[in-house]
Amino acid sequence: MDSAVTVVAFAAGTLLNTLALAFGARRLLNMRFPLFRTVAAGAVGQAVASPVAASLFAGIDPQRQVTATLWFVVLGFACAVLVSMTVLVLWEAFVPTGSIPSPLYWFGSIRSRLSRTRRYRQISFIFLRHGFGPYLRGRAKRGPSTENERVRLARSLTEALEQGGVAFVKLGQVLSTRRDVLPPEFVAELGRLQDRAAPVPWERIEQVIRDELGAAPEDVFAEFDRTPLAAASVAQVHTARLRSGEDVVVKIQRPGIRTVVERDLDIVGRLARTLHQRAGWARAFGVVDLADGFADALKEELDFRVEARNMASVGAARGADVLIPRPFDDLCTGRILVMERLAGTALSKAGPLIDERGMDRSKLAQALLDTVLRQIVVDGTFHADPHPGNILLLDDGRLGLIDFGSVGRLDAELRACLQRLLLAMNRGDTVGVTDAFLEMVARPDELDEQGLARALGAFMARHLGPGSAPDMTMFTELFRLVARYELAVPPEIAAVFRALATLEGGLTELAPGFGIVAEAQAFGETYLRERLRPSSLQEAVSDEVMGMLPMLRRLPRRLDRITAAAEAGRLTLNVRLFGDERDRRTVTGLLQQVLLTILASTAGIMAVMLLGLDGGPAMARDVTLYQFLGYCMLVVCSILALRVLVVIFRR
After folding, report:
1. 327 - beta bridge partners?
2. Segment holding 238, helix H or strand E
3. Taking every annotated instance into account, which residue ranges of this chain make up the domain ABC1 atypical kinase-like (predicted)?
4. What is the rounded end-to-end Cα distance, in angstroms, of the chain?
5. I need a labelling partner for 100 at 20 to 30 A (CA). Which of 28, 237, 321, 476 fits?
């Protein structure tokens, strides 16, 4: 019994000492570390504590030299803490915090990691089977040089993405609109990707409705068609009728799709980072940024409440020619979207119907283009994916827009930049185009503005000069120009070009030969004439004056104070250094690091000098007081040096 109590007491004492060493080391370093890492460092310190104590007490009689024993205990504990601190600093240097998950996280998520690994291998094999091994490993000597090779590679990529599943199909659809990134052959092949899937059995759909709305479909709707109107990889659509008599469309997310998408998005991100490290072409295309933007957009698309808000935002500024369905917010949840039903046919299938009715295709195309351009330039909220499947020809002859999972937004400043760009291009002002363009993009530190202005001038002469016939190829050349001068197009502006490139396909299908660029230029001229009308100018001047009025009211009083102070010789200028809290923190941190470095150096020099002294009062058989103080100063020097190093490694 006594031995068991002794073992328990020893274990408890060892545990307490380990925790004291661990959290003492973390406190002296003045930085937070993961729990596992902290305790492991304390355990290492505890492991070396006994040998250190044994060596220190070798020449001491604890019963006769009580004071010296206590001081050596303190020194031994300090050495153990120093070892724990050294472990933490070295660990931080070689394996920075956050670079790999904690072992506690590994044990807690081993099942999901195994599932992800299997999926990762499956996706890798799909791409390897379609001949992308050299590109994934970064060993491809060159890209496809001929048109036939590019078409073959593009077809293989399309098939691989289609076999990869929902996230990869969506990725292919997004890439099919990035004419600034991919060659035309890839854009054409990826544009054939269809987001289709087998319908989900009614029992599972009914369970989603019960979970989200808290009632059975027959309790919420007057009628509900169990046969889906359409089924895609993320959701499927049913028609229904509310108890108020309104016909609606119910979009229901496929059960379990969120888990599948999040797992595949993690794989897409990992593949992008691997390619960024291994392949030069991936770094040139910025695949990591593309993958991150795609992941954010797809995660947002999985929350149908976001789509309902998008629909309401675009619908608030809708025109009379193109209708936007109205969402029923009280019935919209994260996985269910209930919206007004627009009776019509998708534009991709409406060709025979247009001919049968004898409708003017050019007029329909003009109405659609004007609506999207007005959303972009005037309203600032626009449909970012207007492909033919998302455009309806309604029974009354008008057009409708559906599927607002992807919506672009431009703030007032970006809209103003776009408007200035349109105005300068309409005037043929190269300098104005360059200035407006540079206001929209992120410029590198060293930019050849004169060269960029000349390149933009040549671009305008080629595509917008007299006798030219501008088409969508000008956007491809514009993005090449952006890449050549290492400019970074903001995601909001990229969404504008993507929407226009996507819209081109629908307009070409609706009205073959329709000149989207020429019509957009005509829209810009019309819009500018509207802005230059006397009423518009009067409104703009009135807004500016109202904004300046408070400043104008204060200006005379402030001028009077300044002139009075100047006459009396009391005019002073106050400059506040380090007014920003971030500047103060930076300077304070630098001063602390310098001071700690100086103190560590001083303590180290003193330790060497004390250890080198001969003689002095003896504290033990082989240790004098000077040597003991030297060891203490060495510990202090090491602690201060570790404080400096851990900050360097953590940054």
Report:
1. 339
2. strand 235-242
3. 192-434
4. 53
5. 28
Provide the 10 A C-beta neighbour count for residue 444.
Answer: 11
- Residue 462 identity: R
> How do strand 322-323 and strand 399-401 relate by DSSP bridges?
parallel
Query: Which of 415, 518, 417 minimizes the C-alpha distance to 526?
Result: 518
**Same domain as 526, residue 431:** yes
Structure tokens at 235: 């959701």
Is it the case that residue 251 has pLDDT exceeding 90?
yes
End of a domain among 520, 545, 574? 574
Cβ burial of 282 (10 Å; 0-12, 13-18, 19+) is buried
Q: Is residue 251 part of a domain?
A: no
C-alpha angle 24-29-35 in degrees, rounded to nearest 5: 60
Between CA 491 and CA 475 the distance in angstroms is: 16
CA dist 482 and 456 (Å) reads 10
- Name the band, by pLDDT with cuts 50, 70 and 90, for residue 643: confident
- Among the listed ranges 100-104, 309-313, 440-444, which one has the minimum average pLDDT value? 100-104
| Residue with the larger pLDDT of the pair 430 and 238 | 238
**Radius of gyration over every alpha carbon of the chain, rounded to an integer in angstroms:** 35
Note the pLDDT of residue 143. Answer: 60
Q: Same domain, yes or no, for 272 and 166?
A: yes
Cβ proximity of 400 and 323 under 8 Å: yes
- 243 domain-assigned: no
Whole-prediction pTM: 0.60
DSSP 94-129: HS-TTSS--HHHHHHTHHHHHHHHHHHHHHHHHHHH
At 256 the pLDDT is 85
Residue range of the domain that includes 537: 533-574
Q: Say if CB 623 and CB 611 are below 8 A apart.
A: no
Closest CA to 164 of 199, 128, 188: 128
The pLDDT, as a whole number, for residue 507 is 81
User: What is the C-alpha to C-alpha distance for residues 638 and 83, in angstroms, rounded to an integer?
Assistant: 10
Q: What is the pLDDT of residues 476-523, one digit of tens each?
A: 677 777 777 777 777 777 778 778 877 877 787 778 777 777 777 677
Q: CA angle, corner 145, sides to 144 and 149, nearest 5?
A: 55
